[in-house]
Amino acid sequence: MQTHSRIRLAALATVAMLLASLAVHPASAQKRQARRQTAAGGEKQKAPTVAAALPAGKKLTANELSARIDAMVGARLKQENVPASGLATDEEFVRRVYLDIAGKIPTSEQALAFLESKDADKRAKLIDTLLDSKDFGRQLADIWQLLLLPRNSDNIRTRQWYPNLTKWMEEQFNKGASWDAIVKDVLTATGDVGKPGPAVYWIANPSADKVNDNVTRMFMGVQLECAQCHNHPFTHYKQNEYWAMAAFFLKVRPDGNPKAAVKNGGTVNIIETPRPFINKKKLPESAKIVPAKFLGEDAPDVKATDLLRPVLADWIVKPGNPYFAKAKANRVWGLLFGRGIVNPIDDMHDGNAPSHPTLLADLGNQFTVNNYDIKYLYRAICNSQAYQRSSKPHNGNQDAEPELWAKMPIKPLTPGQLFDSLQMLTGFGGKGFAPKAKNLGGKGPFNARDQFVAFFSAEDGADATEYHAGIPQVLRLMNAPQFNNAQALGAVMRQAKDRDEVVERLYLTVLSRRPTSEERTRALNFVRRNDASLREAYAGVLWALMNSSEFALNR
């Protein structure tokens, strides 16, 4: 027990550094708050010089678009007289790209193979390998099911059907389905919500206003909900425009009672009827029943009995739609950089201008002419120098505005990334990291991962570059018994020939890099002081690494 206590005390020093490193510098916080107040007040900010957009219809390869990205970002940095940080090291890059594309850290073998490779194109090849892996679709499906399926009290009983959308989206992403095809399938879904597919989306968003809020945010990048009960205070959107968009969803409904189906072990079908299905009890008091009309455009030429969702879906995904391609390009950029070219990601309007207007236009246009190929967009952005830049400040860019992309923003691991990475290291199934799993009968989180993500998640719309976990989350990780019996530790001890190699492999396993000479010396001295129980000593080193700020952050 004495050895165990010493191990914990030594590791607590690391955790103290974690908490200190995550503290927001007051000056930085004040600057961010000032920027938010400026944006909220609609004040004019200094407009960047806008370069000429690409000719209409011109099609670039992913590599050509990467070069275009760097040209646009570089031009803005030059205009602002801000130097860029250098490229990330291989150690920084391999961990970053695995987290961003595969959703978890690399194994020690994967990290070591990349670090030791002499191939000049190894970064591009790794990006291609990860985009072709099953983890890519799994990661994207995990992101999108959280965006599309609200976790609120209205859906407590029907959440047992949520995995049907996740499984379907994972298959679509991994087989290379285009984004317009995926979105059309979601928007026009009918059928059994108990089978893999997008029909459950219409159970999770059970009324026209809720669907409207989600569709406009996720597929158009517009926060239209502020116009639900009055004209939008900061944009030109009117209340009538909100309900004209919501009118496209008034004909869709579940054929049966979802809650009764859950209780009785049955299922329910999503249908769209020739006539609107208007349930006043499910609509807010501000609801207006007006003819369907495209946002900012004319009403569609339809008959009263025509199905409306296919009409809206065709309009949303058509080339030339002012919202669709830009919204997806901006969201992918935001996922990779922690903030969008328009930020917040889903709040595009005239008063919230993009930091790089031409770049966003080019990304949207190239996404369109390349047939809404999601992997194309990831490949182009991830191969750019802007993405591969170090997060370490360079002399002269320490206080640069984040939207200049002078250095890579640091992002805390998402709850999903944290769970999957910890599971790799420990082999645990989630027990002990979240409230004890119960047979909830569809009334709450249905597995350990879902519970973990719910416990560690920040509120909707939270800044992805700020650390949102608090003391309860940190204490749960620190005190989890699984860290004392980690799967990774046994594998490392079996493979390593001496103490030095054990320490090196522990660093590669947790942080995807070798220890510095100082870190190596400190860890080996700690192990020697606890020579009577080597396994506990190594477990202490592993525990400290897993609770370090470096592990908790995607740099």
What does this structure look like?
By secondary structure, this protein is mainly α. The chain folds into three domains: 2-23 and 413-554, no CATH class; 54-87 and 340-406, no CATH class; 136-317, no CATH class. The chain is built from 25 helices and five strands. Strands 1-3-2 form a three-stranded antiparallel beta sheet, with no helix packed on it. Helix 3 packs across helix 17 (374-382) and helix 15 (324-337) crosses helix 16.
Summarize this structure as a short list of keywords or feature phrases.
555 residues; 25 helices; single chain; two-stranded antiparallel ribbon; three-stranded antiparallel beta sheet
Topology, element by element:
Blueprint: H1 2-22, H2 26-40, H3 62-80, H4 90-102, H5 108-116, H6 122-131, H7 134-148, H8 162-174, H9 179-187, E1 191-192, H10 201-204, H11 208-220, H12 239-246, E2 252-255, H13 258-263, E3 269-272, H14 309-317, H15 324-337, H16 357-369, H17 374-382, E4 411-412, H18 415-426, H19 448-456, H20 471-479, H21 487-495, H22 499-511, H23 517-529, H24 534-546, H25 549-552, E5 553-554
Antiparallel strand pairs: 1-3, 2-3, 4-5
